[in-house]
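Hi everyone,

Forwarding the result from last night's run.
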Amino acid sequence: MSDEVDMVASGYEFNCPKCDSLNYMSSAPHEATCYHCGNKVVLGAPNHCYGGAHG
């Protein structure tokens, strides 16, 4: 087994509650605007996924 390395999360997403569009972001801000309909939302804390590693 190789040495352990740090992994960096590089993307976040949210579903707009108004139009149900999936929005992608490179950072996790407190507020965001839906790219599809312009709805402004307050975002909760990010949930991280674990598992499903490729390779």
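The chain has no helices and four strands.

Cheers,
N.
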